[in-house]
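note to self — DONT lose this again. spent like an hour looking for the file last time. sequence + predicted structure for the chain T wanted, 471 res
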Amino acid sequence: MSDRTARDPKSADAAPIEDELYKKREKIYPRQVHGLFSLLRNTAMLTLLGLYYGLPWLQWDGQQLLLFDLPARKFYIFGLTFWPQDFFYLAVILIIAALSLFFFTALAGRLWCGYACPQTVWTEIFMLMERWIEGDRKARMKLDKGPRDFHQLRVKITKHAVWLAFALWTGFTFVGYFTPIHELWNSVLIWDLGPWETFWIFFYGFATYGNAGFMREQVCIYMCPYARFQSAMFDKNTLVISYNEKRGDPRGSRKRGTDSAAAGLGDCIDCKLCVQVCPTGIDIRDGLQYQCIGCAACIDVCDDVMDKMGYQKGLVSYTTENALEGNKVRLLRPRVIIYTVLLTVLTASLLYGLLTRVPLEVDIIRDRNALYNETDAGLVENVYHLKVINMSEAAQSFTLAISGIPGMKVVGPTRDIQVAAGAVKDVPLRVQVDPVELKKASSEIMFHIESQTQPDIRMDQTARFLGPVLR
């Protein structure tokens, strides 16, 4: 993988290669581009930002559609209520997310970075606002190099004011996922925010302002670890954005319609537009580089140039190393198949678990101070503590029953076990059995807990009953 800088030494944007590691950052002015991949990228940006800013305002049965209520330890997600005891589902979701990243990277490179990464998405919208206010690439460069007059000051203040307002709205929305957003909005209007809400609104807002407005490609190049280990997931059949060196070289400018072969040139006219549209400032013609985020802007602009020159499109394209070398391409290969199988199994398991989820959890703790006791009536007795966790949104009254050994008797509450919503109820019990019924020293018994008002909220839990064996 090449670490070379993308700038041409003769261009105004040139940077000395030998000083790149320690050299002060030179501002990049990405040129606006239109095309298929630009349309896909903008569609992804608008969709993701729409979801981010819109979801907290949606309601489901009078409850915010997506809310992580940390003080109450409740997580409302699309009509379902989750508790800390449901951490298993979060773990599965994170595993699915990681496998999805590996799958798409092995299949088509840095799709996540180019289309869905928050850094990319917010940088795109900040650059869009910058173009609206300051103009296109040439206008922005001219403005920055121009005199420090009132016009420049007015344009810059306007841009940063818009950026700050959007960034603070981003921070407000972020906090709205943890504090009911309607209450939060009312608190903002009367400026009655709590200290933590105030801190996170401004912290997240200024983080967005700094990352998307100033740091931009520096986050991708120097701060993001994904750029460093992505190559471990690439192989010769991974689709990556590549320049066809065999077709494009030797490069050289020429008039429109010139026959490349007759002129002794390749199809690349060395216009450097692929460098000008790159948000990280690299030259895709230098080969695969870790700075490339896979946004495909260079494909769109190169195809446009090829079309104007009357040449075949695809000089820069999504392709594989095998395809460039003229070898057979295998998109379906062992690692892709394994990722697909794992993702299918885990996703199906998660959906099944959510659809069959019961908002009830029961932990049975057997008293370990004594293996068993003998009552005055000659019965064998075991002591248990049941922790009944009601994970529904309403208080429940539970009924308890046991089975497993004939003639078992429960000493303790078996009906009207009241548990508040989200509460844990400790239920002490003593189970007594006639020793004649014990066939072995350790027998399995079953506790049956069922809601009196919602019979579908029920659970069966096993435990061990210890006692002597009569011979």
